[in-house]
Amino acid sequence: MTFKERYLAGEIEFEEIDSYISKWNFSDLTCTLREYLGLNAEEEDTWIEVSDEALKDMLDAQKK
Q1: Is the pTM of this model over 0.90?
Q2: DSSP conformational letter for 12
Q3: How far is the C-alpha of 44 from the C-alpha of 33, rounded, in Å?
Q4: Residues whose CB is less than 8 angstroms from the CB of residue 43 and which lie 6 or more positions away in sequence, other chains included
Q5: With the CA atoms of 21, 53, 38 and 25 taken in that order, what torsion angle do they form, in degrees rounded to the nearest 10?
Q6: pLDDT single digits (tens) 6-46
């Protein structure tokens, strides 16, 4: 499961995103970080252009 899937399911805290980024950085995967985290383009743009908190707010709005 991706970070986003696990976060939306309530399995992990948002701060766990840092561990996912670290794992991606040290992997040989060919996918983008956005793909690895399971984010869509709008979520990635918000994360990069605004803040971690803005991404968290977007994801929280999608929680079940």
Answers
A1: yes
A2: S
A3: 9
A4: 4, 55, 58, 59
A5: -10
A6: 999 999 999 999 999 999 999 999 999 999 999 999 999 99
